[in-house]
Every structure is written in C-alpha cells, then in structure tokens.
Write a structure and sequence with these properties.
Elements: H1 3-19, H2 25-33, H3 42-66, H4 72-89, H5 92-107, H6 110-136, H7 148-156
Helix pairs in contact: 3-4, 3-6, 3-7, 4-5, 5-6
Length: about 170
C-alpha cells in the first residue's frame, strides 16, 4: 500500500471517528501534528498513557462507589481528572458521559452515579476498540509486535478485544 493511500485511509478513519462523535477533530489533529520522524508513535503513546491512567482512575472510582457513606466530593475529583484526560485526547463521547456523572455527584444521587459510571466505562471501551482499529492502519507490514492495547491488557487484566491476546499487531 503506497503512502498516499495509507494517508487517505487514516484520514477517512479519523473523519469517521469525528462524525460518529467519538473524537474532537481539532484536539486529535493537534496530537497528530506533534508526531514526527523523531517520535513516529507519539499519538499511540499518548493514548496508551491515557488508557493506563484510566485503569487507575476507574479503580479509584469503583472503590469509592463501594464505600459508605458515599464521598461525592472524592468521586467528583476522580471524574474531574478522568474528564481532563479525555479532553487531552479529544474523547468527546466519554467526556460527555463524565459530565453526566458529575451532575449526579452534585445532586448527591448514588444510583445515578453508578449508572453514569457504567456508561462512562462503556463509551471508554467502545473508543478503545475504535482507536485500536485506527492505529492498526499506521502499521508498516514489515514489523510485528504486541499492540499497545495488548500491553495494557497484560498490565490491567482481561478486556474484550477484537483479537486474541498475543496475536499482535503488524506494527
């Protein structure tokens, strides 16, 4: 596949993610603009860090949701951190669900927080799958290693994946 065709394919995939409301185009393009020959995997590395940090914040939120009495201030603080991480990569749908969680925290609605957190995790996972496909388009066919999502999987436990762990990505 020639470079121009690959660039068009990546642009179409990015456009699709924007049109579906998963990504903020300007924010994601800013990340891509920081990628260069000296750091060719910059965006993938940023997204990898996002998912690693997400696992930590999800753990903290889940622990806080199980504690009694429920500490809505602590929940809101964790979600504020997570919402900021989503903004940094342009994850619009996930960020919108974070805003709903915040509203439930402000209202002191425990059941609402629990439902909203489930939606946050669902959108987060959906975005992960979409980005996994997107990053596979960048892979040169002559290299092979575990995808960053598989590395995260090994570090953070099992998640649903479109591939089997260890299958790797041609990258």
């Amino acid at each position: 596949m020639d470079r121009n065709h690959l660039q068009r394919q990546v642009a179409l995939m990015r456009s699709s993610l924007v049109q579906q409301g998963y990504l903020d185009e300007q924010q994601f393009l800013q990340l891509e603009d920081l990628q260069d020959d000296a750091n060719p995997n910059f965006v993938e590395e940023i997204v990898t860090l996002f998912y690693k940090d997400s696992a930590r914040l999800f753990h903290n939120i889940e622990q806080t949701l199980r504690s009694r009495p429920l500490d809505f201030t602590k929940l809101d603080n964790y979600m504020h951190q997570f919402r900021g991480s989503n903004s940094s990569i342009g994850a619009i749908k996930v960020k919108n669900e974070c805003n709903q969680f915040k509203e439930y925290c402000l209202a002191g609605n425990a059941e609402g927080c629990i439902r909203a957190f489930q939606k946050v995790k669902q959108e987060h996972e959906t975005l992960r799958v979409q980005l996994e496909t997107y990053f596979q388009a960048f892979c040169p066919p002559h290299m092979y290693f575990l995808s960053f999502f598989e590395v995260i999987l090994m570090q953070n436990g099992p998640k649903k994946s479109s591939r089997k762990t260890g299958e790797g990505t041609k990258c």
